[in-house]
Amino acid sequence: MTEVATPAAADDQRITGDILKIAGVVVLGAIMSILDITVVNVALPTFQTIFGTEGQPLAYSTVAWTVTAYTLALATVIPLTGWAADRFGTKRLYMTAITLFTLGSVLCAMASSINMLIAFRVLQGLGGGMLMPLGMTIMTRAAGPKRMGRLMAILGVPMLLGPIGGPILGGWLIDAASWHWIFLINLPIGIIALIYAFVVLPKDAPHPSETFDFVGMLMMSPGLALFLYGVSSIPSEGTVTAPKVLIPGIVGLILLVSFVFYSFKPAHPLLDLRLFRDRNLAVSIITMFLFAVAFFGGLLLVPTYFQQIRGESVLHAGLLVAPQGLGAMLTMPIAGMLTDKFPVGRIVPFGLLFILAGMISLTQITSTTSYTYLIVTLFVMGLGMGGTMMPIMTSALKTLRAAEVARGSTLLNITQQIASSVGVAIMSVILTNGLKDAQLAGPAIASRRDPAIAAQIGGEAGVKEGLAQAAQAFAHTYWVAGALVAVTVVAALFLPRKREKSALGTDRADAAPVILH
């Protein structure tokens, strides 16, 4: 990355006003990017109704693409960001990212079909995916290493509040106004952030560096999208042998396999798979992938359960999900401190056990499970998430040489985004198939919107039975998520259980911070 003038002398450890102004720009971008992910989660049942036909809501696996498309776009743009920042300058690129995200948000609000919404979510993700890595680069250059710990605490605020505030904000906007406002809220924030960035960020002095692997990107991104599209088409087609499932699935798989073999050839590949030679990195990435598939895939189902099975409003569903964010907020800083003192192999398995306990608890949910049980379960899962995510990411980078940290960070970030997309696709397909197999589930859920439907399935008794069947479909999906977490626990047992030493014989606890979405 190119050098820019710092607001204060390198040896000055004070957090000056100029640095705080720059941190304010980055925090605004982080708020937009992180809140947007959790805001949309509570809106999926609304999308099913709004974009469905009369009396026939869209399949859950279809509307889940509003999340999958966004995370795939994030994964696509993360490796592009460093190269583009060197070529065009961080200020210019950061303002472009804000513009893309804001424009994508406005277009999402104007979408008249689910396909339009998914397409505009891709545009939004392309902007959102650049905001966090660029923000980290901008802050690092402005503050220097001696002040980064304190500034990371500032940047950590939206990271911690996103899982709590996002569902509540999304629920309130949908209930008080309409679903359009979960996207339109980004317009005033985006305009303020754009003007703020123009005024505060230092002038660019770009110097193009290494080449970008466009060939790799053209294989990885379409390959993932086609493969996940094939998987997501299984519920609507009813069989894995349907052309709509097989053709995109096979083409996507061929592209992904080709990408893996190709990645060992370029000097600067899109993803440096050669880093897998480092055992700790390989174990960390495998653990991260399994964890993200299970956790983020399962996480998406919770607001939908509250709305469709329990008949809660979108706002109440958001409030009921908040304990999970509170749990993560409690353990994340503690896990960060422990990671500096103890090997992650002695920390992560305990966090995963909390998540496993939560997933197993969710396999027992019914249409009448007490809210105390559900809130405690979500809080416990949040405790586990806070003690799992950052230590895994940190572990992967600690044993890498300084020159490899940037490529390792990119590999980890993309792994997390890809795994999230895979998890959402898998869990939504399993849930959709479960609801489809339960004959009374669909009509019972639909009767909450149109009471006349209840008469078609035997009145109140039929609705009660249908909701019980629907809750069972959710419970069965959590058995899959729980099994994946159990496998993740096994993988985590291979994480380092002794402090790693660098070639100089010092503990490598100073790896660059990792950006998560």
From TrEMBL:
<feature type="transmembrane region" description="Helical">
    <location>
        <begin position="347"/>
        <end position="365"/>
    </location>
</feature>
<feature type="transmembrane region" description="Helical">
    <location>
        <begin position="371"/>
        <end position="390"/>
    </location>
</feature>
<feature type="transmembrane region" description="Helical">
    <location>
        <begin position="411"/>
        <end position="431"/>
    </location>
</feature>
<feature type="transmembrane region" description="Helical">
    <location>
        <begin position="246"/>
        <end position="264"/>
    </location>
</feature>
<feature type="transmembrane region" description="Helical">
    <location>
        <begin position="180"/>
        <end position="202"/>
    </location>
</feature>
<keyword id="KW-0812">Transmembrane</keyword>
<feature type="transmembrane region" description="Helical">
    <location>
        <begin position="63"/>
        <end position="81"/>
    </location>
</feature>
<dbReference type="InterPro" id="IPR011701">
    <property type="entry name" value="MFS"/>
</dbReference>
<dbReference type="InterPro" id="IPR004638">
    <property type="entry name" value="EmrB-like"/>
</dbReference>
<keyword id="KW-1133">Transmembrane helix</keyword>
<feature type="transmembrane region" description="Helical">
    <location>
        <begin position="93"/>
        <end position="112"/>
    </location>
</feature>
<feature type="transmembrane region" description="Helical">
    <location>
        <begin position="118"/>
        <end position="139"/>
    </location>
</feature>
<feature type="transmembrane region" description="Helical">
    <location>
        <begin position="22"/>
        <end position="43"/>
    </location>
</feature>
<keyword id="KW-0472">Membrane</keyword>
<feature type="transmembrane region" description="Helical">
    <location>
        <begin position="314"/>
        <end position="335"/>
    </location>
</feature>
<dbReference type="Pfam" id="PF07690">
    <property type="entry name" value="MFS_1"/>
</dbReference>
<keyword id="KW-1003">Cell membrane</keyword>
<keyword id="KW-0813">Transport</keyword>
<dbReference type="InterPro" id="IPR020846">
    <property type="entry name" value="MFS_dom"/>
</dbReference>
<dbReference type="InterPro" id="IPR036259">
    <property type="entry name" value="MFS_trans_sf"/>
</dbReference>
<feature type="domain" description="Major facilitator superfamily (MFS) profile">
    <location>
        <begin position="22"/>
        <end position="500"/>
    </location>
</feature>
<protein>
    <submittedName>
        <fullName>Multidrug resistance protein B</fullName>
    </submittedName>
</protein>
<feature type="transmembrane region" description="Helical">
    <location>
        <begin position="280"/>
        <end position="302"/>
    </location>
</feature>
<feature type="transmembrane region" description="Helical">
    <location>
        <begin position="214"/>
        <end position="234"/>
    </location>
</feature>
<feature type="transmembrane region" description="Helical">
    <location>
        <begin position="477"/>
        <end position="495"/>
    </location>
</feature>
<feature type="transmembrane region" description="Helical">
    <location>
        <begin position="151"/>
        <end position="174"/>
    </location>
</feature>
